[in-house]
Write a sequence for this structure.
């Protein structure tokens, strides 16, 4: 499956682990532990956003011009209600 992008769940997992470490460090008044948890949380968020961006970039682009022309053609046709 070469077209599949990275899994955003990995970034989410790192972020949740960082949040847990922040909670433990904050409860125990351990500032360095809290800082490590914060770094993990921010790194996990960046990894999540990056993986979503890569996944979106690998998808096929939308044919917006074709959709717009079909929408315009549909709008120009009189509907059954307008004919009377």
């Amino acid at each position: 499956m070469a077209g599949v992008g990275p899994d955003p769940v990995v970034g989410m997992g790192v972020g949740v682990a960082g949040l847990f470490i922040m909670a433990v460090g904050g409860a125990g008044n351990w500032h360095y532990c809290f800082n490590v948890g914060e770094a993990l949380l921010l790194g996990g968020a960046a990894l999540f956003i990056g993986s979503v961006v890569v996944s979106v970039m690998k998808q096929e682009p939308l044919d917006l011009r074709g959709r717009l022309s079909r929408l315009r053609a549909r709008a120009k046709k009189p509907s059954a209600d307008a004919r009377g």
About this structure: The chain has a mean pLDDT of 85. Helices lie at 8-27, 31-58, 64-76, 80-83.
